[in-house]
Amino acid sequence: MSNEAGEIEKLRKTIEHLSDQIIRSKEQEERILSEFSEMNNELVTLQRLLAKNNASLDAARKEAVSAGESKSSFIAVISHDFRTPLNGILGMAELLQHSSLSEEQQHSVQVIQEAARLLLKLIQDLLDFSKLEAGQMRLEMGDVELEPTFNYIVRLLEPKVIQNGNKLAVECDPRISGVLEGDSTRITQVLMNLIQNANKFTKEGSICIQADLVREDEDSQWIRFEVKDTGIGIAEEDQKTLFQPYVQTEKGRSKEYEGTGLGLSICQSLVRLMGGQIGVISQEGQGSTFWFEIPMGRKTEPVKATVPTGQDTLHDSGALLQEPYSRPILLADDNLINRQVVLMQLKKLGITKVDSVSNGEEAVAAFLSKRYGIILMDNMMPVMDGLEATRKIRAMEQDEMRHAVPIIAMTGNVMDGEKEKCLEAGMNDFIGKPFTLESLKNVIQKWQLPSEPREVLNMSIVKEIGELNSDGEQSILEMLLDMYRNETPGKIEVLRRYVVSGDHIAAAECAHDLKSGSLSLGIEYCSTLFARIEQLAKTGQVRKAEPLLGELIPAYQEACEALEKVII
């Protein structure tokens, strides 16, 4: 009996122990569930906060993008609004310079030009800084020859250097390859900025441009450029912040040395964009050496490098056009001063048949009322801007099968992408304000078309074809015209692509084929255009044929219409 009681007692204790464990397990389970519920609530709260933050970040991003677009738009307008009157100032000053002036008057004109060019440089610095800040600056890689680049810089800056009583010298390491790969325009910009800076702070001294080979491998060479001067030097404390935007030394802030404080910051950004570094070595009162090192690709075959042409300030702009221009020109610009300047510049070039209007709507109306050889079109005008006016003109030319008149954009907006907008609208070329007489002359010569078109048809050939007809059969001339119509438009489009891409051989072959097909039908003027394109392509100048492309389809359509009348 005692054993049974003992077993029962053990069993009771076991049950109590198990019950206790079950209770504790339930308590632990409830505690875990409670903790899980709290964690879940926290997770939901975090998700809500994250969603809210994402919405805030998205709104902030959109606001930043909108602000960036507004800033770019603002800078474009400011650029245009500043450059347009500057074009008037520099244009008038240039025209005055070519007239009979006393020594005192010549000096006054030079002061005007220098002040206007300084203002233009300040505007360009602000534009460059804005593009660099927005990450919109892009390198244009190509062939670079340092010797022609240095020669160009010396020719451009030496007069100003001499004016300060300084001497300019150039030293170039002979181990540097004759032709390298890089951005010639940006290298020139940095060098010119450093040289102009050196000249600003140096009087009766010397400035030396030096290029040395630092290291090289099979594909590239590292070039170190130095601009040394014997000027006033820079204090050690000023050197630490010299390349920061809007920062100038105490002496640099004086009225004697004008500037924005952006030049060196822009140089640093451009050098970094080219994968290099920039710095300065200087002691106050003992001159300065500004240097930058950049990697440049090695070229296996020497190709003539393209050297920036700047504002064509080295040429004598007084010369007339190579060939007299007798066709009327339409000038569309809303700025009265700018219109007057361009009219006087055109007169200086021997062009007097010029009509001027003040907005795009008036330009379209003038186009409808008269045949023009060239239209000079400002792209930012009231009522209707130049881009919309160009689109309307191109549409009317297509509807009326008129010859395409060359339209040249004139604009003070030189931001990236502006030229592309003009070309997409149907303009043929682009000239940025302010522009010189030489620049205007070059663009007019480039797009100068014959004063009078040749005979559309050679009637003797057309007559011979007509005499080949047999009674009861389809006219041979009609059959040949059908074949010509089926093939020619497609071939003209192919020719256009070859010309635009610069494929000399293919363009010459295609133009020859079109010329032969046109001559066989007695199509005179159109075949002449094809012959001119063929000749330019054969001499490696196919890109010069671009102004003729707009004439091809109208000339083809005109010939087809003339042949139709003969057949009827």
UniProtKB/TrEMBL annotation:
Indicate whether Phosphoprotein appears among the record's keywords: yes
Residue intervals of the HPt domain:
473-568
| First-tier enzyme category under EC | transferase
EC number(s) per entry: 2.7.13.3
What residue stretches are annotated with the Response regulatory domain?
328-448
Specify the domain of life of the species encoding this protein: Bacteria
Task: Spell out the InterPro entries in the cross-references.
Answer: CheY-like_superfamily, HATPase_C_sf, HATPase_dom, His_kinase_dom, HisK_dim/P_dom, HisK_dim/P_sf, HPT_dom_sf, Sig_transdc_His_kin-like_C
Q: Which UniProt keywords apply?
A: ATP-binding, Cell inner membrane, Cell membrane, Coiled coil, Kinase, Membrane, Nucleotide-binding, Phosphoprotein, Transferase, Transmembrane, Transmembrane helix, Two-component regulatory system
Protein name in the entry: histidine kinase
Organism from which the protein derives: Paenibacillus illinoisensis
